[in-house]
UniProtKB/TrEMBL annotation:
Residues 157-233 form the SH2 domain. Residues 396-415 are annotated as: Disordered. SUPFAM superfamilies: PH domain-like (SSF50729), SH2 domain (SSF55550). InterPro entries: PH-like_dom_sf, PH_domain, SH2, SH2_dom_sf, STAP1/STAP2, STAP2_SH2. This is Signal-transducing adaptor protein 2 isoform X1. The keyword Phosphoprotein applies. Signal peptide: none annotated. PROSITE patterns: SH2 (PS50001). Keywords: Phosphoprotein, SH2 domain.
Amino acid sequence: MALALSPPRLPKPKSIQPSHYYESFLEKKGPRDRDYKKFWAGLQGLTLYFYNSNRDSQYVEKLDLGVFVKLRDEAPWGSSQDPGTHFCLVLRNQEIKFKVESLESREMWKGFIMTVVELRVPFNLTLLPGHLYMMTEALAKEEARRALEMPSCFLQVSRLEAQLLLERYPECGNLLLRPSGDGSGGVSVTTRQALNGTPVVRHYKVKCEGPKYVIDVEQPFSCASLDAVVNYFVSHTNKALVPFLLDEDYEKVIGYVEADKENGESVWVAPSALCPGPALPKQLPPASITPVSSHNKLPPLPNQDENYVIPIGDDPAANYVNGDVPSPSRPVVQKPRKLAKFQAKPPKTPVMPKPEPKGLNSVLARKLAVSSAQVFSPTTGLADVTAELEEKLQRRRALEHAAARTGDQQANLQA
């Protein structure tokens, strides 16, 4: 009986190790970690990859150095001296602490990170000539890589859309690259900054001349790549301009996988009903409006949201007690009193008789305090006052004449 031959076993393909500018063991502690965790780390481009071991080809974590802020040395927690094995990577949205085995390893990591971020070899670190040569090679590879790809702050948007993005997401940066609007194949740089609370938006033109990019300013500057263009704006503004990087790590719409009933394939469904908006308040029925006559119509109330100065010239004149008493020296025609304006709904208050004025004991005061049902006539009141004054004058003249006659008689008797 012939036995079936089994196919020969082939050796498993070895995992290809990714090409890194620099790699070594690195202990990492994030903002949510309680202690350091050891990884095999490698730097490639503007990304720092972390692996469980140096044999793995699939990374488990990564850090984007496009949001780099600075590097700083720091002593371990609870120690006042820096042993030279700790440093901190400060990004725009978080701080990551690292621990290495020696001072040389720390300076190497700092040097390579600064090389790919600033596109220059740092000479202010404690490094050997061989280390600087390795960083120079990494710099050449990084420049060649960036020349073939677009920077993260380059977006296919128009001039107006770029302004709206910078205005809506100021925390994501204030410098954005976009295609030029003149159709020449170049790019444009849009920036947005705040000057004393006022937004200032600027647009710069970058010409494409062969393999070079020329920034069209007063003194044109030539760059080898668009990343070099971005670095030029960042370095010449004292890092006030930050490349725009829209955070897309979180989804804005809830979705789920559902099987299609017709063909059985799975499809992604993201209905808008899963994200209901805020409930709108129910509309109240319109209130009944009672018509108001034109002569009793009140002025509209001012808007409470605006500051208005309400004039007081329309207030009713104050009613004084002695305001209608005419002067005895000259005839005065009394003006008709203005009636106070009342609302149409409330009933009119009954008119009460005026109280008798105090301090006037003469006949004039008694005549003025008449009933409210009688209407005061200016002509009749003036005639009564004139007759009363003439009667008083005649009585005074009679008394004076009698007193003078009595004095003459007494003088004749004494004589």
